[in-house]
Amino acid sequence: MKVQSILIAGGYGVVGAEIAHLVRKHYPEVEILLAGRNPRVGDQLADQLGFARTVALDTSDLDPLGEVTKLPDLILAVVNDHEDQLMLSCVRRGIAYIDVTRWTERMRSAIERLDREPSVRAPVVFSSSWMASVAATVAAGFAREFSNINRIDVGILYAQEDRAGPNSVEYMDRMHLPFEVVENGQRLMAKPFRAAHKTEFPGTGTYKLYRFDTPDQFTLPSITNAKSVAARIGFDDAISGPLLSGMVKSGIWRLISGRAFTGLRHGLLFNPGKGAPHRVRIDISGETSNSGHSTRSWLIVDFESQTHMTAMGALIQIDRLMREKEGVEPGGVQIAEAVTDLNHCLQLLEENGVAVTEIL
Hints:
Structural class: alpha/beta
Shape: globular
Oligomer: single chain
Mean pLDDT: 91
Order of helices and strands: EHEHEEHEHEHEEEEEHEHHHEEHEHHE
Low-confidence stretches: none
Number of helices: 12
């Protein structure tokens, strides 16, 4: 599709700015609109980028695009679109929309809401699995080498010194809530932060990982027909994982789940540093046509930060849409990991310093 301008909702935040720099690097001819409630905050970034400007936009407005003059060709949501107002504003104007912010229930409800829309002409891309669907896209791509999949495990190592935006710890607000998973072909409710699972990250060490809610566990079972899919997260310090697990199991986390304690909850993990590598391990077990049953594993490492990996996930989806010829790209709902070519994904990751290697 032809894209001359891209609006990034939340474009002058930590993640939005990272995406904006990548877009400018890869597409110097595209105008970038940095949108948010306080557009003047983004003026300096707009000057740095060149061919960029700031735009006032509030996703909680009934029609967030109603006051935007000269509408863009594509909108990327990097801030929460809680009531789907920005999404619907795009859909009703035929503007392509990419969202990298939604957790499972919000993603599911948005898809159901779009089913009630009379016409969805432009692409609506949900790229909200871990790190803007980078992990799920790699998992879904390599899963195609299997004829039958028993399980997929997505293991995440969170670095406490990582450079991150405030939305990066949004999952903490749901840590006390059970969530739906697929185990042995059955849909079950899993409890978060139970039963630590020791996982090795080659070259770094072995860490305890805990189940938690991510859209990967919603999308990968249907995309790959895997009988079981699990996502787990752990931390590179010895305290955070056991502390959070204990607070969840004891019921303390539920007691501090209200809005009044949001700062306390987020403060336990959101202490961003100058940056640290972000690591994701993918394990796939199943049948292959050549060797029968086997388990293969891959390691994704972004040596800059999880913020950079999220920005890469967004860039991959922007690049995918822009590569499609006019009139070829279908409209309607798209799950990023279901429609993204693995080779295209790997190429962009490699070009931008993100390593994907098989663990032998």
